[in-house]
Amino acid sequence: MRFEHRDTETDASVVDRVWRTCSDAEDTMTSAARTCCQLILTRIQGQLLASLRGPETRATTAPVPPNAEFLGIRLALGTVFRPHPAAAIVDGYVPLPVTDSGRVVIGGADWEAPTYENVEQFIRRLRDAGLLVRSRLKVEEDFTGHIEGHPSKRTLQRRYRATTGLSQTAVTQIDRVNAAATMLRDGRDWRTVVEALGYFDQAHLAHALRRYVGRTARGLQAGDDARMSFLYKIGPWAGS
């Protein structure tokens, strides 16, 4: 399975990117840890299935049915999908009803199922209907006490977890290991990755890759990522 993906032309604050792929035969696929929700539409022999997958805190393996087509909409970190908060589906998913005519039911209304070519219109309609909402996530690291009129750092951290389903620490760890996977896939050696991203040593990096990506450094360098459902983080890791 090979993934085709692109940035959307809609408001980038609510959707990170869209992707599609298809399967020729029954197979398995590795899903790496991710910090955001994904709306996934699957077509199998003319039948449409829809689901919202939550953030994932570890790499998992899932079966892939034969002759299936997949369309994914990866939400940006901090995007709230109104009917189903991310905190309620961490390491899980919720199926979305599909009508007999092939329309997806979201927020009590049915919507025409998008295609890879017109997905921007679908995203825009959900956003305009208030079903996709961007939330502010920043937690000030230097906030040391409660100031009248301002929430405490602990309150901000609770809001962050309520919005994303994850702690800031978990988000940082997942972003960092995805950046490491990108560097290794692009041919960098483990020493360069360890130094650039602040891992303690090779063992620390190897443990993170096993837990969050489900691959080894050597496997990524050899191109062992054909059957993976994750898309590597684009650009440099922005963690602290």
Overview of this protein structure:
- The protein is of the alpha+beta class and about 240 residues long.
- About 25% of the residues lie in helices and about 25% in strands.
- It is built from 6 helices and 12 strands.
- It has a 6-stranded antiparallel sheet, with no helix packed on it. A two-stranded antiparallel ribbon has the order 3-6. A two-stranded antiparallel sheet has the order 8-12.
- Helix 3 (about 170-185) crosses helix 5.
- The protein is globular.
- The two termini are about 35 Å apart.
- About 30% of the residues are buried.
Mean pLDDT: 86
Q: Order of strands side by side in the largest beta sheet?
A: 1-2-7-4-5-9
The geometry reads as globular
What is the tally of helical segments? 6
Order of helices and strands: EEEEEEEEEEEHEHHHHH
Number of strands: 12
Distance between the termini: 34 Å
Largest sheet: 6 strands, antiparallel
Would you tell me the structural class of the helices and strands? alpha+beta
The fraction of residues in strands falls at: 25-35%
What descriptive keywords fit this protein?
240 residues; disordered C terminus; single chain; two-stranded antiparallel sheet; 27% helix; alpha+beta
